[in-house]
Amino acid sequence: MSAPDSLSEYLVISRGQWDKDLSPERIQTAIDEFYSWIEVLIAQGKMKAGQRLSDQGSTVSKSGIVTDGPFGETKEVVGGFWFFLAHSLEEASALAAKNPCLQCGLFYEVRPVENARANAFVKMTETPQG
Q1: What residues make up the domain containing 85?
Q2: Cα separation of 14 and 113, whole Å?
């Protein structure tokens, strides 16, 4: 993927309705701890962009049908995304594991970003497996 000394980009997808059963005070504490945590990552050069997502949205099917709502089930809620810079998937996952909101029920999906252009003859996510 990259040379041993270079950093690769990892997409971190925030999932779960972590604040559903928490008091406003506990939610605010978690939010404050979260922003302190990401400020450190940014200062260390380990985090690029990231953002919360609105709970509004739509889905578009392969036939072009548009429906309201970005998700089918509450447990599948995607609440935000971030880009980490790390030497390996393990390092990026270890960074994500330090998020203070995890203790409130949030969980993450960490995925390497493929910088190469898609190609039907190269095994990638879009390539049919068979």
Answers
A1: 8-112
A2: 16
